[in-house]
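#data-curation
PF: Archiving a pair of folding outputs for the training set. Convention for this channel: one message per protein, sequence first, structure tokens after, nothing in between. First:
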Amino acid sequence: MKHFLLAFLIALAATVSSSAQTLQVDPIYIGGTATFEVQNGTPNKTAVICYSLNGSGPFTSSHGITLDLSLPINRLNPLALDALGNGTLGPFPLPASAVVGMQVWFQGVQIDALSNPVYTVTNMVPITVDAPPPPVDMVAIPGGTFEMGDHAGVGFTNERPIHSVTLDAFLMDKYEVSNTKFADFLNNSIVTVVGVSVYQVGGAGQRICFLSNGLTHNGSTFVIDAGKDHHPVVNVTWHGAALYSNYLSTLNGRTPCYDETTFACDFTADGFRLPTEAEWEYASRGGEHSPYYQYPWGSDSITSSDANYDQNIGTTVDVGSYAANGYGLYDMAGNVWEWCNDWYDGSYYSNSPSTNPTGPASGSYRVVRGGSWRSSATDLRCAYRAYNFPTYGTTYIGFRVVTVQ
């Protein structure tokens, strides 16, 4: 898996004598690189850190050094120790083959030509490559199996039959995408503004959004209406949400998921995309599967203190204004409807794949989920399914994105 974030802080306790040295490991997760710190070595001498992806030896080199590592053994650049016998090596990229869950074995060798023996070897320390922390403002949703659909018997025919779905783990935006984040995308993209409409340049030339209720254009820059920096972006089309996802992928060094002409989604890419309908419902439930509740906060009841909804003359509020669900996700009900990746089919549940379903191959509408500030309580249920034209933008539809871990 790409883009795991991992760093090692290694303290090598060495002495001037040939007594056994100790290699200690304290994992710190910083950026996909490894840093080694040598402490208490022989002043002004040299240390080398060796590693193997294949475990323990022993292996004796032509210099007579016996290492606990197995071939092939890799060595890093020599590390010069200072007058106190301390030094730092790194950061350096971890080997691409060291994927999450794999072990990497490290061992240190101090070189002192004036001592006998010249080479002093530390103990061998295995490290398990850990999963990265989620990107900023994203939470990890564990993989699992759930029963998708209306368990309360209060829904509509398109919410049935209840069916078992198994999903891989994924990362999901903690909040709905805000005006601040969407304005950054627009201001760093090549787009065309025609009246209050913003269009994609190149690709299919799709409409991205309408400029009202949060964003405006002053002739050179997209600006945010006063007080709405942290409101969810609205009036964004499905295509605009997909293009934002591609922008975010490029910004973070990931492979974009969407073809910007056909808007087909490559689910094997490691970039950002809109959640599938199954991912959205699974995440909205917050891990509450026994029993299955109607609402994301683990309850069959709803009040105005739970979500922003049922306001005919209302508006959006700052993302995160209400309590999170069990996965740490905010506003999975109310505030704005959220675009999903799937085409909509009212009978899809009857033939949905049981593992990682991605929706119908085509259609006229895209799925939206979660209800909005103007929706009734019924629409805010985890199982409720709605849809709209992908070219449509309105004051009550926004989105959030997902990506692989």
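PF: Second:
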Amino acid sequence: MKSSIRKLGRMLVPLVLAAAAVPVVVMLGQPAQALENGLARTPQLGWNDWNSFGCSVSDSLIRQTADVMVSSGMAAAGYRYVNIDDCWSLKSRSSAGDLVPDPQKFPSGMKALADYVHGKGLKLGIYSSAGLTTCAGYPASLNNEQRDANLWASWGIDYLKYDNCGDTQGRSGQQRYTAMRDALAGTGRDILFAICNWGVDNVGSWGAATGNSWRTTGDIGGNWNSVMGILDQQPGWASYSHPGAWNDPDMLEVGHGLTDTESQAHFSLWALMNAPLIAGNDLRSMSAATRTILTNTEVIGVNQDWGGRQGNKLSDNGNTEIWTKPMSNGSMAVVLLNRASSAATISTSAAQIGLGTASSYSVRDLWAHTSTTSSGTISASVPAHGAAMYVVTGGGVVDPGTTFA
């Protein structure tokens, strides 16, 4: 959501302090016990209409998107959720107190739409907010948590994105999001709970006990500066992430305002950070290059693998950075990021990224889909606003690295 209220949320992100040009995110508290509702054991993959369509959501858009998610190969690559964002309802509840889908946008109703999406082997998501109104001014769910959760379950909803707009009546984020967690559990239906409170209210300390993912920042935009700004705020969150509970640096802007090179870098980094991969482009008109990026199963495989630690920044040299993530098989995933406006050679070594001594290392290029052998050096000429991504095998992970956090 990009309403004026949500823009205020951008100003409420965790405090960022500059030190030696490396962002340090100050977080309080320790990770709480996991929600353990059995969902999102790996980060969720899907699509959401907001980035490309805003309030112009409709039954036909959702059906067409579900169709393309299957025909494009995205479903085969692991994408499951087709998510409706704000503006789907009427501006008032029914006389009985229920949310009402806008009959002009959704003439067949939500149950029929869910049935259609389920018939494609996919799942349907809905949106509300933990206040009295949504970010676009529609009725939201504060004080109606169980009523709304029961309604969504009766429609066959599988995913709730729960925003942070509207009058909160003085209740804390933890109170408001816990109330919806309990309401969803009370339906008896498996509904993935995506907390969207923009990283405020110390959500790192209670998010894992409350939702399957939680936003760590304000809204992302379809431009390189926004993507990099969001990225800069992620290192301090890494310790809160684990199966069933994921840090969410917001939806993907792949194919939406970014060049193909930028999109590839963006996708590489979000995958490495175990972020939910929620596409935000118009799937119906995406280019072949965008489709290739979104369906790169080797990169998605890094996202879906849990090696005990979320990917994190290992080194920062100003315009170039090295990000790493230990994999469950003892290999190390690596992203070499070039933030500059011209190409740069970026190099690291097996020792620096935390691998043990070996006579040689296998270096798998996840974008070129080629493998080479190295004595320990990993190096690439990386284009402007680009990234190279590898999985390096050999020696085993002996040190996950001293990361910037």
